[in-house]
Amino acid sequence: MIFTHDTEYALGTVVDLINTGPAAAGTELLGDLAALRAFVHRNRFSDVGDLTEADLARVRGLRERFHAVFRAEDVPAAVRLINEVVAEVRARPHLTDHDGYDWHVHFFAPGAPMGEHLAADCGMALAYVVSAGELDRLRTCAAPDCERVLVDLSRNRCRRYCDSRTCGNRMHVAAYRARRREAEPKTVGSTEH
Fold first, then answer.
1. Which of 35, 148, 184, 188 has its CA 20 to 30 A from that of 44?
2. Secondary structure of residue 140 in the 3-state scheme
3. For the chain, how many helices (H) and strands (E)?
4. Is the pTM here over 0.85, yes or no?
5. Strand (E) positions, the chain?
């Protein structure tokens, strides 16, 4: 484990959020409150009240801002983007051990709106990535036709694809077929005189 469990979990949430957007998914996957509720459920958020259209708008705005961190040209640019997000949060750090997880820190006030919850926990997770000198672990999928993002948490920093079963497998098959084509003997047509 490179980061603490809660930081890695928040990074997974950031990836899931960014990958719901048109820039990554090709279509809007967070189109309404039902989709936002599904996102909240899928990422097992704690202490989330009733969701509103304002929550949906704030979450979509955060999605674009988090995506900008993945596309940042350098560390200072990423730092500026992250600091802008976390500066807007009314931080109330507190220890909690909910849902079977050991003690960890939440940076949002209990009962905070969904956008503040995301901005605090996910913004701080991205801050930890940068402060650990690991910004290069935030990537876009290496498949040429995929814009989804990923966080490479492998020890040797070798993860290149958003999903090894889809993009990774597709790219490995394409590389295999290309090698086979190159290895095929060239047949020279016979000519009779």
1. 148
2. strand
3. 7, 4
4. no
5. 94-96, 104-106, 138-140, 149-151
CA distances (Å), 169 to each of 4, 134, 144, 161, 188, in order?
29, 26, 13, 9, 34
Residue 21 structure tokens? 């957007």
d(CA 92, CA 106): 8
The candidate with the shortest Cα–Cα distance to 36, out of 114, 109, 134, is 114
User: What's the mean per-residue pLDDT of the chain?
Assistant: 87
Q: What is the pLDDT of residues 92-134, one digit of tens each?
A: 777 878 777 788 777 777 778 899 989 999 999 999 999 999 9
- d(Cα 133, Cα 30) in Å, to the nearest integer? 31
- With 0-12 / 13-18 / 19 or more C-beta atoms within 10 angstroms meaning exposed / middle / buried, residue 7 is buried
Residue 77 backbone dihedrals phi, psi, to 5 degrees: -65, -45
* pLDDT tens, position by position, 79-92: 999 999 999 988 77
Q: Which two tokens stand for residue 182?
A: 């190159």
Structure tokens that stand for 2 in this block: 């490179």
Question: For the chain, how long is the longest CA-to-CA vector?
Answer: 90
CA distances from 80 to 11, 74, 76, 110, 138 (A): 18, 10, 6, 27, 16
- Residue 146 near residue 162 (C-beta atoms within 8 A): yes
